């Protein structure tokens, strides 16, 4: 290859426009190099349509004239021999374009008006596929030399490199735009989620406050109702005793008091005082139950308890109750299970659960059983008290831990046993408690940390 052509190729291969994918600048540089190196009049870039039904001129250099996207299209239906020749993806070397079999159909409508005599078309390949041509045209008869054909082929390959760079830059731009859009979408979604979370937290807070106030209202109403009954009876009995005493004084002052009347009035007053005392004691018992249920205060220290040894000691205190209700205890606790807890509150919890099962779970069962089982994992230990009784309705399950809820109020139950258990487990033992039916009865489950958080 001639040295000046080699120098031009070296210069073009170093052009930043090519590797930056700047197609307008690449068109100008490559076509200017062709016209300069080959000393010809006219050069252009043509790209095939996707279906190869036509080929369109995308850049034209004619002397000093540069045209980007000139309005020139060659359709296969109008120039079938030329497009068929391009299908072979080879150079078209037409020293006399008017007579060459592949270009002669351009003679009348294209070559003569422009005064073109010779043509050299070299394929542009992109990803190994021919996508167009560089068309080199001269207005004088010309014998195309091998060096010139090779030179044009090299420039066509450089044009393919520019197309790859342009495609890469396009993909990079689209990727950056996609990333930017994604960042914007993620930011917007994050803002929406943040607002939603804040709204949910506010709603949750309001619901908690509403539920707290509703629970407080139910608690106050329950306390008022429970205490009002014995106090009301005590007030009535006291008023009755006072009225009887006043009547007794009048009989005495009018000297109409007989031994029989005195004894009758005295008996009424005695019964009234007994009724006052009994109901005041009932009120005191209720208040003590309330205090015990609230029992968040703890004066004890946590200790390590071996449940297999601790639970049987608790069962001794309820032995008479178990015998009265004919209930058998089944203990299923690993010998090595050791937990950190409070002995007295844990004993109260077990006692109340067994009392609750004895009094409420069994109806007509002949074999009454309560199974106490325990296990542990890395962080927690679980205790279950399961009976083979009647189970509980959905309403009873939902309200079981509510203060004053009981199904046996007529038999003297206050409905505070499970409330006490719930508070002790939740606050003091730092655990959770749940209640569910099984196939054979009801199961109360406690889950507590193996080691308590102490301050």
Describe the structure concisely for a colleague:
The chain has 455 residues and is of the alpha+beta class. It is 54% helix and 20% strand. The strands form three sheets. Strands 1, 2, 3, 4, 5, 6 and 7 form a seven-stranded antiparallel sheet that branches. It has a five-stranded mixed sheet with strand order 9-11-12-14-13. A two-stranded antiparallel ribbon has the order 8-10.
Describe the structure.
- 26% of the residues are buried.
- The two termini are 91 Å apart.
- The chain is α+β, with helices and mostly antiparallel strands and 455 residues long.
- It is 54% helix and 20% strand.
- The radius of gyration is 51 Å and the shape is rod-shaped.
- It is built from twelve helices and 14 strands.
- The strands form three sheets. Strands 1, 2, 3, 4, 5, 6 and 7 form a seven-stranded antiparallel sheet that branches. Strands 9-11-12-14-13 form a five-stranded mixed sheet. Strands 8-10 form a two-stranded antiparallel sheet.
- The protein has helices spanning 3-13, 16-19, 23-38, 80-87, 107-114, 146-253, 259-294, 307-317, 319-325, 343-360, 394-399, 417-428, and strands spanning 42-48, 54-62, 65-68, 73-75, 92-94, 118-126, 129-138, 303-306, 327-332, 338-341, 368-376, 380-387, 432-437, 442-449.
- The longest helix is centred in the middle third of the chain and has 108 residues, at 146-253.
Topology of this protein?
Layout: H1 3-13, H2 16-19, H3 23-38, E1 42-48, E2 54-62, E3 65-68, E4 73-75, H4 80-87, E5 92-94, H5 107-114, E6 118-126, E7 129-138, H6 146-253, H7 259-294, E8 303-306, H8 307-317, H9 319-325, E9 327-332, E10 338-341, H10 343-360, E11 368-376, E12 380-387, H11 394-399, H12 417-428, E13 432-437, E14 442-449
Parallel strand pairs: 9-11
Antiparallel strand pairs: 1-2, 1-7, 2-3, 2-4, 5-6, 6-7, 8-10, 11-12, 12-14, 13-14
Helix pairs in contact: 1-3, 1-6, 3-6, 6-7, 8-10, 10-12
